């Protein structure tokens, strides 16, 4: 279950990334990413250095979830994956076996790292495509995080059912790894019964929030006592299964601080 009610999109796609330039980790993590690359890469390339895309279907020939976008091809013969006029492909490196059996439950991890020049800023970025499960990629590869990006993760469409906001994933949770002032970008996939984003999902489904602008002007804010975090809605990045919303995550109760 996701956002059930249609919400009117009455704002342009925008989420100013300047404040992320001060974050120290410069890492974005997107589990169950499939071929959803353009929005995360183009939007965050000015401030993020390393983009993790993690999917169990990558580099598994004829895998049902990736064969339609050709991401099932062997990792050593697929580059460049990301084609966009603002980016020049440079090279790739590979760790792990280039292919894996599509039926195996025990996925052999593989990380394909592609290097690109972001032409408008002159920055070099890395796109890391990891074959494997979302939770294990998060556990093994991520220590600190500037952006957690998550959308289109519907079990009905082949998504994971993973409860990112309320489960411990190996050595830590999002709340342990996300920097103070970092972002969560979500279309509220799988958010409905997890305490953090339940409020906003319930408000949309109950018809209390009808337009995206109502989340931005003024910013929708909520405080989680359980995690001691204030969430502030700071942008809209298009529609997937629900509105893709960007939230800044600040430690402490900023709402009563004023
Ligand atoms: C519905 S598709 C959505 C892809 C992308 N998020 C989008 O919006 O286009 C779900 C994807 O999740 C992947 N997936 C499902 N369970 C997973 C898991 N536990 N770990 C990693 N990937 C998973 C599938 O292979 C598939 O590519």
Main sheet specs? 10 strands, mixed
Number of strands: 10
The helix-and-strand class reads alpha/beta
- Gyration radius, to the nearest Å? 18 Å
Helix content: 10-25%
**Poorly predicted regions:** none
Number of helices: 5
Q: N- to C-terminal separation?
A: 36 Å
Characterise this structure.
The protein is an alpha/beta fold and 258 residues long. The protein has a domain of 118 residues. Helices cover 13% and strands 30% of the residues. It has 5 helices and 10 strands, in the order E-H-E-E-E-E-H-E-H-E-H-H-E-E-E. It has a 10-stranded mixed β-sheet, with helices on both faces. The chain starts with 26 loop residues before the first strand and ends in a 7-residue tail after the last strand. S-adenosylmethionine binds next to strand 2. S-adenosylmethionine (SAM) binds next to strand 2.
What's the topology here?
Layout lengths: L26 E5 L6 H7 L5 E6 L31 E9 L14 E9 L4 E9 L2 H8 L3 E6 L23 H4 E9 L8 H11 L7 H4 L4 E4 L4 E11 L3 E9 L7
Parallel strand pairs: 1-2, 1-6, 2-5, 6-7
Antiparallel strand pairs: 3-4, 4-5, 7-10, 8-9, 9-10
The site of S-adenosylmethionine has 23 residues, from β2.
């Amino acid at each position: 279950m996701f956002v059930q009610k249609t919400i009117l999109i009455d704002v342009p796609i925008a989420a100013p990334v300047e404040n992320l330039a001060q974050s120290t980790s410069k890492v974005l993590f997107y589990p169950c990413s499939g071929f959803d690359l353009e929005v995360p890469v183009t939007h965050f390339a000015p401030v993020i250095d390393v983009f993790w895309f993690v999917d169990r279907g990558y580099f598994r020939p004829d895998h049902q979830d990736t064969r339609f976008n050709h991401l099932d091809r062997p990792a050593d013969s697929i580059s460049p994956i990301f084609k966009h006029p603002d980016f020049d492909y440079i090279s790739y490196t590979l760790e792990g076996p280039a292919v894996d059996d599509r039926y195996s439950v025990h996925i052999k991890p593989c990380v394909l790292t592609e290097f690109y020049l972001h032409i408008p800023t002159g920055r070099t970025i890395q796109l890391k495509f990891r074959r494997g499960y979302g939770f294990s990629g998060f556990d093994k590869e991520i220590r600190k995080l500037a952006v957690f990006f998550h959308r289109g993760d519907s079990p009905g469409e082949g998504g994971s059912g993973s409860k990112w906001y309320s489960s411990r994933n190996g050595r830590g949770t999002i709340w342990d790894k996300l920097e103070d002032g970092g972002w969560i970008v979500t279309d509220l996939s799988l958010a409905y019964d997890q305490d953090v984003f339940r409020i906003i999902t319930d408000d949309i489904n109950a018809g209390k929030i009808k337009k995206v602008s109502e989340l931005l002007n003024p910013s929708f804010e909520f405080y989680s006592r359980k995690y001691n975090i204030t969430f502030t809605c700071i942008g809209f990045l298009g529609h997937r299964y629900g509105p893709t919303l960007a939230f800044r995550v600040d430690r402490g109760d900023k709402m009563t601080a004023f």
